[in-house]
Amino acid sequence: MSRYMAMVNAENCPRAIARPKSAADWNGGSLTISGKALPRKIARSARVRTPVQEGDEIWICTDEVGIVAFGRAQNVEASSGSLTITLRDVVLLTQPCALSDFPKSGSGSAIITQLQGYRHPDIYLLDEPVYDELQTVLDARLDKKP
Q1: pLDDT digits over 69-97, tens only?
Q2: What is the pTM of this model?
Q3: What is the domain partition of the chain in residue ranges?
């Protein structure tokens, strides 16, 4: 199983819902990343880029809200240079993480820095070091919230 971070805008969210109120809003729905059939990797990532496959974990960041949820890829279609992923087992974060909640540099997470600098639809491979950084930063952010 691999992990990925998808950056999408509202119309490419499952059912075009950028602010899901429950996991049911996105379960069984598809997100689309136009022009990105193969995920990118963060510059210092050691892993080779791999295509998204069924069962992979997909983290979702919307341009309106920030990091909102994660789920599993149920079905993956790569055609005409675009990627469409049907989601299952979606889990909404208890508090979405707006990219503006983090400093522009020095957030401690390479993926957050990447998303802050390039807010266009895209998908990124999250290898273990990059994922661990993300988790550390998200956990620290939640610890600071009342």
Answers
A1: 999 999 999 887 889 999 999 999 988 99
A2: 0.91
A3: 3-144
